[in-house]
Amino acid sequence: MLAYGLQSGWHSLAREKAPMIRHRTLATVALLFPLAAAAASGCVASEPEEVGDDTADRCAEIIAHMAQCYPDLATEALCTADTVAQYDALGLDTQSCEGIEGLGKADLFAFGGCGQNERVCGWIFCCDDYDITWLPETDEDWNVLPVVEDFQAATPGWASAAIEQASLSELRAGVSVSYQQQVAETVGGAPREMAVEITRQVIEIPYPLFVQRLATEDWGIQLDHYLGGEVLIYEQDEQGRATRQLERMVLSPFPCDWESPLTNNDMTKVEVIRYGADWSTVTWRVMHSNNNSTETDVGSVDFRAYGESSTVVTFHSAHRLNAPGGIHIPNSLLAPSLSSTFLDFVRHYRNIVE
Question: Could you tell me the domains of the chain?
Answer without folding.
Answer: 20-30+133-353 (3.30.530.20), 40-128 (no CATH)
